Model the fold of this input.
Amino acid sequence: MPRFQDGPATGLFQPVRWEGGLSRGALAAASLSPEMKAALPEAPEGECVCRGIPFSADHPVLIQGQRRTVSFSGLKARWLIFLHTTDRSPLGENAHGFISPMRGEGRLGEIACTYRLRYQDGHQETLPIVRRRQISVFARRWGENSFDAVGHAKPRATRAPHEQLGPEWGRKQTRVDSADFPPFLCWLWAWENPRPNAPLTELECEPGSVPVVLFGMSGGDAGSNPLRWEGRSKAILTLPAGVSFSPDLDESGLLRDVSLDLGQVISAQPRPLYPNDGWDASYNNMLPRISDREVLIEYTAHPEAVFHIAGGRTVPASGLAAFAPASGRGGSGLASVAPSRTRVRLRIVERGSSKPVPVKLHVHGEAGEYLAPVDRHRIPNHAWFEDYSVDFSHRGQHWCTYIDGETVMDLPLGPVHLEASKGFEIKPVRKRIVVDGSTSEITVELDRVLPWRARGWVTADTHVHFLSPVSALLEGAAEGVNVVNLLASQWGELMTNVGDFDGKTTWGSREAGGDGEHLVRVGTENRQHVLGHISLLGYEGRIIAPMTTGGPDESALGDPVGALLSDWAEQCKARGGVVIVPHFPNPRAEHAAALVGGRVDGVEMTAWGNLYGGIDPYSLSDWYRYLNCGYLVAAVGGTDKMSSDTAVGTVRTYARIQHGKPFSYDEWKEAVRRCETFVTYGPLIELTVDGKPMGSRFSLSGSGGTLDIEWRAQSVTVPMSRVELVVNGEIRESVAADPWTAEGRWQLKADRSSWVALLVRGHYPDQPEIVAAHSSPVMVQVGGGAFMAAADALTILEQIEGALAYLDTVGTRADTASYRRMRMVLESAHRSLHNRMHQAGHYHEHTPPADHPEHHR
Ligand SMILES: [Zn+2]
Ligand SMILES: [Zn+2]
Done:
């Protein structure tokens, strides 16, 4: 990035020029991480303007290994601004992927370097440069900002898509253009000559009521009106070995590599290669391989149209050989895919019932072509905020939709391959069905295998965006998710779902006309890019706003920091809501204070679009710190679904409704508050410690005793591999597990205060092992001993100090009163943990006091 300039330079600052420092070449040759080296060409260079402040970046100083000194002549300034960054350092995970002490990838609190400024009179100022405070890494993990420093580029306003692309953003999602509204439209009319063999010699044109311009004529032969195209057809284009298909468009917006004369290509995409022969044995949502030589073409054309393929080859559409799965290897050319013209009613029921049930559905034909119901997208759009249709586009490769249990489809004759699933308790089905001329209805039966619902457990996704409440209700029911928390929020200048928030309605409840089994409630996710995000679920009354503060990227430019996560959380709790820290732990900052202050009910393990990543040990390591210090908060699962590439409930919360109580949204909130929860990507678990359920707290007197731990784990989706016992953040027991069902008992000697949780690992055969499920803990206090891990407490204190520093330094301020009030909230959380730590007999070196002379002025 030679000469980085993000706007004009202020006259208030001058670049500091020094003697010493490296050439760019020497910096590039230094011993840095490969990632930093690769990014160096993007680093500021030469005369730069960063946030309006001029710098000369020609002679960087590499602070590594030994002291470096540069000299100035007569530098005087009230403010010195440092343009600096760090390399990354390895995380130091243990064999289980856990990190302790957990300072985050940004290594909050570590000293990156120390600056000593010497004055002409011999005086010296020492400036410790602390990571995630005065400096951070050159490529930060999302949610690990600096508290006292800002990025070198200014935040900026961006234009809405229609302002960048013309007023067509919404229209473009239709993926069609009738093309009959150009600035100058001529009309084509085809006349069928009754005497085709008789020569014509003249055309006479006589004027009528309006001037007419005839631009030309064309004559030819065709079996039917050359302007009438037939319905959609599909073909497989096999490219010669070594040739790859280009998705590029030509100047008229058409595909360059394949086109039709009397017709149009609708779509062209690499052919998905599904395991059709072993379809019944492959697993739900398993991705197809993607062919690098075959392209699935969809088109509409006159019967005598001709394909024009890159390289000048032409193939008549009428002369295509039928696609046969086994052939196509070796040769190149076009083969036709069996047309989908048999209209079939499809019904999905639970065995023993005739009532259709909502499911996620995928159907494809012999060539791997996706077959959508007649009222669903044939080409789902998984871009962010472009389309909130009820589809699931797994990594853009495996397309599915949600139906209410009954739908109408146009299918090809011959075999079709169907997938239907409905959450983690019903066995997903992959089934081959042969359609023949007499097929008009297909019924598929599903089996409910695991009885967790019958034992009082209900499932929830704590974090879904953009869907309408009714779409969320369908997707939730089809994924077997009982509670979908749809979160309104703000994204810069964009407000989403705010019209769906009314602070009272639970969609799907009996009061709202539903069956009471699947519920949707609109809450809010309130967000701040440095301090963090907080999800406020199921609260009553008016929306808790502003939903974002402090500027981009979450909030609008110029928004001051007028509220803390702690403030939002307190309002939510006061109005009967449940408070969740979403996509825990990042942004990794002020939620430490909210948690220590008792304002948080749960921390959320998040999937986004990843079905195979499992529960991230990064998230667990961070949660364990709070448990180690005695702060019991539930583990919950939420997807943060923002587009169709994420399925509702990919990772989900199981919470147990109190015995004897009917399921309702209020009872679900109670279960989360009680921490009787586990998080899962598939395996279902039960755990008791001395007969007490997850989320319990109890005491043993004296020197403790032996705890009786009983557990059970079952799955119908992700195969399990190991079941482990986590005690105070460490794996204490580990046993190999049968993929589908396992149970056991352990005796655990507890001679100090301990928390105990169950962890299940598992994986699909072709995927890496993941943490597939994790319970909330049972906390056992022994002999009145405190839960206090000093190393963890220190890292939590550092987070709160960071949040304070942000308020004091670079956070945009609202008014003085709210600034002071927010400081007090954070100071009080800091004090409470700090005091507890000292009461437990842990002493530590105090970090330099957060003294910021600027705020006294
Ligand atoms: Zn968020
Ligand atoms: Zn979110």
Observations:
- The first strand starts at residue 47 and ends at 50.
- The pocket of zinc ion (ligand 1) is lined by residues 525, 527, 533, 582-583 (CB under 6 Å).
